[in-house]
Amino acid sequence: MVVKPSRNEDSGPLPALNQRIILFILRGPFEGSYITKILERRKDGFRVYAPSFRATILPIPPGETLDVHFSSNGAHFEYRCRILERYPGTIPTILISVPEGEIRRVQRRSFFRIGAAFPVAIEPTSAIPGSPPPGPPGRGLSVNLSGGGMLVESPELYPDGALLDVLLEIPDGRVPALVRAEVLRDAGRATPGARGTWFLALEFLSSADGVQERITRYIYKLQRSVRNHPRERGSG
Predict the structure, then answer these.
(1) How far apart are the C-alpha atoms of 198 and 86, rounded to whole Å?
(2) Spelled out in words, what is the top-level CATH class assigned to the domain 20-106?
(3) Which of 82, 165, 176, 201 could join 123 in a cystine, given CB atoms 3.0 to 4.6 angstroms apart?
(4) Which residues, 6 or more positions from 224, have their beta carbon under 8 angstroms from its beta carbon?
């Protein structure tokens, strides 16, 4: 029987079994964020899929310090932990420790959400090496945008929790901006019929260098336009 990790009950929530979480590698050549999943809860920690990049398992050794990000009851939390063990196999896993300090509540939505219409290219990806992506690629249109996510009109209905690499064709005269996003929910049918489209609410998980600044500048430009031309509000 798996024993619930011991901790101070007032220290905050812990991720749940089968929940998707984000591991932040803090330093080194693999610095960045990686999606994984809680497979087992143990007394000393959680067993999760080993982080990977383009289907290659990262050689992160035991003792490495990580930050864990997860959601609970609509709020977002982070805590610091360590890799305790690595388990090889067909699909390698690792054991990460229970929180070694404070469980911090964090704010993911950093900016006001505003109407913004521009093309997007969607490439679904798999969080688990060797497993198929959650649907075919497609091209869609942004509906609104914030620093933490967006609503898109998509020709494909990707399931809640699906991971997408999204190219944002921001109209700022530069090449498309790449972000990794997660489908939060199906927001309803956009157009009916066999070739209909869906509204999908996306949360940004990570982005290429400089992309967050581009998104911020574009939102600021749209906000100025709304203030200067209030009758155009909501037109995208």
Answers:
(1) 40
(2) mainly beta
(3) 165
(4) none
- C-alpha distances out from residue 111 to 71, 77, 150, Å: 19, 18, 11
CA 165, 82, 73, 38 dihedral sign is: positive
Going through 147-228 in order, the beta strands assigned E by DSSP cover 149-154, 163-168, 177-191, 197-207
Element holding 46 (H helix, E strand): strand 45-49
At 2 the three-state DSSP class reads coil
**Amino acid type, 40:** E
Give the span between the Cα atoms of 164 and 157, in whole angstroms: 12
Domain spanning 114-232, CATH architecture: Beta Barrel (2.40)
DSSP string over 72-104 = ETTEEEEEEEEEEEEE-SSS-EEEEESPSS--E
Half-sphere exposure of 11 (CA within 13 A, CB side): 16
CATH 2.40.10.220 domain span(s) along the chain: 114-232
Paired tokens of 205:
């998980």
Question: In the chain, which residues fall in CATH 2.30.110.10?
Answer: 20-106
Tens of pLDDT, residues 26-54: 877 677 778 788 999 998 999 999 987 65
Residue 83, CB-side half-sphere exposure with 13 Å CA sphere: 22
